[in-house]
Write a structure and sequence with these properties.
Elements lengths: L1 E2 L6 E4 L2 E2 L6 E2 L18 E7 L4 E7 L4 E7 L1 E8 L10 E7 L5 E5 L3 E8 L4 E7 L8 E3 L13
Antiparallel strand pairs: 1-9, 2-10, 3-4, 5-12, 6-11, 6-13, 7-10, 7-12, 8-9, 8-11
Length: 154
């Protein structure tokens, strides 16, 4: 991980079970400290494909917590904290997610900006386990080259 660690952002390695015909990749299990208590309801689980070299940035949610795992391909993800009351305000955190050595669950709390791009010659597939259903009214976007975020995707 490079940059400062952003308050509330967590990464938990996930188990990969090798089998002769293809690996089994864990994502959701009871007792995972990064998962919501589903007894109070469930948001949604969806997949987002990112084509090679493509950038999806910048976005943040005002209420929704993101939980990303990358079971196929690899992404470079950048996070920026501009929350006024955060102890890590101004911090930038950059990391790679995906197999073989960075398979895990990345928790992104509300109000943290994030953006990513696919690395390598193949599409990447992001699995997101969000704590609330998608609501376009609670998300905010900025362009990839927004000068208020101190990071450029190359």
């Amino acid at each position: 991980m490079s940059g400062n660690v952003i308050q509330g952002v967590c990464f938990l390695p996930l188990r990969v079970v090798p089998t002769p015909r293809g690996d089994v990749l864990h994502v959701l299990r009871p007792g995972n400290p990064l998962l919501p208590d589903f007894r109070d309801g469930f948001g949604e689980l969806y997949f987002s494909e990112v084509l090679p070299g493509c950038v999806k940035a910048w976005k943040r949610h005002t209420r929704q917590t993101q939980r990303f795992a990358v079971p196929v391909g690899r992404i470079g993800i950048a996070l920026h904290d501009d929350r006024p009351l955060s102890s890590t305000r101004g911090a930038l955190q950059v990391r790679e997610l995906g197999r073989p050595d960075a398979y895990g669950l990345l928790l992104i709390p509300p109000m943290v900006w994030y953006g990513f791009r696919a690395l390598g010659p193949h599409p990447a597939l992001i699995c997101n386990c969000a704590d609330t259903p998608h609501d376009p009214a609670e998300g905010e976007r900025r362009p990839p080259d927004d000068p208020r975020i101190p990071y450029r995707f190359e």
